[in-house]
Design brief:
Elements: H1 2-20, E1 46-51, H2 58-71, E2 76-80, H3 86-97, H4 106-130, E3 134-138, H5 141-151, H6 156-167, E4 174-179, H7 182-190, H8 207-223, E5 228-232, H9 237-246
Helix pairs in contact: 2-9, 3-4, 4-6, 5-6, 5-8
Bound molecules: ligand Z5A.
The site of ligand Z5A has 26 residues, from helix 2, helix 5, helix 7 and helix 9.
Length: 252
């Protein structure tokens, strides 16, 4: 009797695995697959991400950092999330600018970001790193944990599972978290010519939401202090750039 029940249970579990995922889910958290260096030369490429609340200056710093790498003779690819490939950019358009009448539910929002990431990682990020390039990405999965997890309240374990599935083991070598008070970031974007009066779905979520995002990022940085460098973004952009490049002094 017990034996029959055990067989049924095993079959049921196998069926669930087959129906929910193509591959067996990974039991372990994602590991770093691309290390920056083992000596004084970069062996493969590097994968660098920038995170932070809105208006923190990510785009500005990424552009400066890329110029810095180029001046050292390195090939550098700048990309962004959501987006980065044609399909991922289409998903970006939906997740940022969809405007009813049917609302995007929170669960679908998570999956749209993950779908964009899956395309981006496989079709752009991993190939570029394998060619020895330095990839700098404006936001990556830490944003999912900060925005969809901490701020929207989506289950963190689910997010970990979905993220692992999307990123294929591609964990950043280093992440710069540009931290600043939400109000300062808002002020910057509200006075930026291209975005005046054009808040997208997520930008329009309100001050409390964005404060939770900032707290979320800081929690992530505490949990992964080795990877995530917290930088004071409430200072002039040249000083911040110099602080960021210091990190690479021993790898170039
Ligand atoms: N999102 C998500 O929810 N889940 C996810 O998994 C992912 C993303 C991947 C993408 O928006 C949205 O998707 C984002 C999170 C969500 N939504 N929000 N909010 P995006 O890519 O369109 O925008 P963003 O990533 O939030 O960036 P941003 O607002 O464009 O800002 P930024 O790139 O950090 O800053 P910036 O463009 O470099 O600078 C902003 C302005 O400040 C500009 O006028 C600069 O000249 C000025 N600036 C820059 N640095 C300074 C300094 N140091 N001092 C003074 N002024 C400065």
């Amino acid at each position: 009797m017990l034996y029959k029940f055990w067989i049924k249970l095993t079959l049921f579990c196998e069926f669930r695995k087959l129906s929910y995922c193509v591959k067996e889910p990974k039991k372990e958290p994602a590991k770093r697959s691309y290390r920056k260096t083992t000596g004084d030369t970069v062996k493969k490429g590097l994968f660098i991400t920038f995170e932070g609340p809105e208006g923190a200056g990510k785009t500005t710093q990424i552009s400066k950092l890329c110029d810095f790498f180029k001046s050292k003779g390195k090939e550098c690819v700048v990309t962004r999330e959501p987006g980065g490939t044609p399909v991922a950019e289409q998903l970006r358009e939906i997740v940022k600018h969809h405007n009813g009448p049917e609302l995007i539910v929170d669960e679908a929002e998570v999956l749209l970001f993950a779908a964009s990431r899956a395309q981006h990682v496989r079709n752009l990020i991993i190939p570029a790193i394998e060619e020895g390039k330095i990839v700098i990405c404006d936001r990556f999965y830490d944003s999912t944990f900060a925005y969809q997890g901490f701020a929207r309240g989506q289950n963190i374990e689910n997010l970990k599972y979905i993220t692992d599935y999307a990123i294929c083991g591609c964990v950043p070598d280093v992440t710069f978290l540009l931290d600043l008070p939400v109000e300062v970031g808002f002020k910057r974007t509200q006075t930026r010519e291209e975005t005046i009066g054009k808040a997208d779905r997520i930008e329009a979520a309100g001050l409390e939401f964005h404060k939770a995002v900032r707290e979320g990022f800081l929690r992530l940085a505490e949990e992964e202090a080795e990877r995530i460098m917290v930088m004071n973004a409430d200072q002039d952009s040249e000083t911040l750039h110099n602080q960021i490049t210091e990190y690479f002094a021993d790898v170039l």
